[in-house]
Amino acid sequence: MEQINTIRTQALECVSKAQTLSELNDARVRYLGKKGEIQALMKEMKSLPKEEKPAFGAAVNELKQEVSQVIEERKIELEELEMNKKIENEKIDISLPGRQFKLGNKHPLRIVQEELEDLFVGLGYQVIEGNDIVNDEYCFERANIPKDHPARAMQDSLYIDPEWLLRTHTTAIQMAVLEESAPKLPIKVVCPGKVYRRDDDDATHSHQFMQMEGLVIAEKVTLADLKGTLEFMAKKLFGEDKKIRFRPSYFPFTEPSVEVDVTCHICNGKGCPTCKGTGWIEILGAGEVHPNVLKMAGYDPEKCNGFAFGVGIERVAMLKYGIDDIRHFYTNDQRFNDQFKRYE
Q1: How far apart are CA 84 and CA 315, in angstroms?
Q2: What is the rounded distance in angstroms from the CA atom of residue 35 to the CA atom of residue 45?
Q3: 114 closest CA partner among 175, 195, 190, 208
Q4: How many other CB atoms sit within 10 Å of the CB of residue 152?
Q5: DSSP state, residue 92
Q6: Separation CA 320–CA 48 (nearest Å)
Q7: Residue 276: phi, psi to the nearest 5?
Q8: 108-343 carries CATH number 1.10.10.60
Q9: Is the pLDDT of residue 274 over 90?
Q10: Using alpha carbons only, how large is the chain's radius of gyration in Å?
Q11: DSSP 46-65
Q12: Which residues face 176 on adjacent strands?
């Protein structure tokens, strides 16, 4: 029993002196491990008289439980001390400025496209998108541009094979909508998307650009309806003081056809180098849908008619934001894109 008391005193002292969890674990192994001092006491029972063994075994078990409890209590104390120490050392100085996280912004062409979409959805139009690769029939022939038509000279390019090509205008989407909707009326859609043409790359031209074409088919649709629609669009895009004008033009899929100009954003109609002294800037082409286009889609041009228009999204963005070179849209210069955060 004297030996048990000695080990008890030593164990309790060793545990109380432990300043870290590592030191405490060493004490646990020393006294409670398989080769520890308390376990060694149990081996000595073999040499004791039979009548002394029960009392000795009970005393050893009591010692084992007491040391285990003291170690567990000390472990809780040391864990709390280490946590407090860690909190103290890792304290955050909230007076320091936080890290700056750079957020991206929409591309100017996306901003203009969404503005146009919102505008026309508000007028009751549907937004219809299509594939970049289209059939020659829907890109040209359904738009009243047969294979021998001279209008193909500006667009007849970028073919995948003799029948499929990268669309040169989103008119191809309109032709598909006309066919799928026949003979239901009315039709009011806008069709945004990329288009591709064999063209020079300079400040005002690109082999790839974006269009949004509109199409309305109903009964007794007039050029006055077209002008009212485009004037509303121009005022929303460029300001309530803007005016538009129609000039006679030619497009194979419309008759009559017009070029549409808007008051110059630089001189406000007074005349300047930007508008070449005219006071007007051309923004899009439009016209009444050609009867041949309606016939090919399954409509009777004697019973319905409509108008179509096509606007270049780059052209609108350049006029709206004063951008002088179309190539800025495609150079992926972050400094250029960052300017348009305020327009989102």
Answers
A1: 64
A2: 16
A3: 190
A4: 17
A5: -
A6: 104
A7: 60, 35
A8: no
A9: no
A10: 42
A11: GGS-GGGHHHHHHHHHHHHH
A12: none
Backbone angles phi, psi at 101, to 5 degrees: -105, 120
Question: Cα–Cα distance between 75 and 61 in angstroms, integer?
Answer: 21
**pLDDT on residue 218:** 95
- 3 Cβ contact list (under 8 Å, min separation 6): 41
Could you tell me if 185 and 88 are in contact, meaning their C-beta atoms sit under 8 angstroms apart?
no
Q: Give the mean model confidence (pLDDT) for residues 19-38.
A: 83
Nearest to 214 by CA among 246, 189, 192: 189
Q: Considering Cα of 145, then 148, then 151, then 153, what sign does the dihedral take?
A: positive
With contact defined as beta carbons under 8 Å apart, do 136 and 199 qualify? no
For residue 344, pLDDT over 60 is answered with no
Question: What is the pairing mode between strands 126-127 and 187-196?
Answer: parallel
Beta-bridge partners for 189: 126, 215
Tell me what pLDDT residue 154 has: 72
| The one-letter amino acid at 236 | K
Q: State CA 234 to chain mean position distance.
A: 28
Measured in whole angstroms, the distance separating CA 137 from the mean position of its chain's CA atoms is 34
Closest CA to 159 of 147, 175, 171: 147
Angle at alpha carbon of residue 214, lines to 332 and 303, rounded to 5°: 165
Q: Which distant-in-sequence residues (6+ apart) come within 8 Å of 169 by Cβ? A: 139, 143, 155, 195, 211, 213, 310
Residue the block writes with tokens 């509303």: 232
Q: What DSSP state is assigned to residue 189? A: E
- What is the pLDDT at residue 215? 96
In DSSP terms, 257 is beta-bridged to: 249, 287
Kindly state the tokens that stand for 57.
């075994």
Instruction: Please give the backbone phi and psi of residue 235, each rounded to the nearest 5 degrees, phi first.
Output: -65, -40
In 3D, which of 312, 306, 255, 256 has the Cα closest to residue 282? Answer: 312
At residue 331's C-alpha, the angle toward residues 165 and 259, to 5°, is: 55
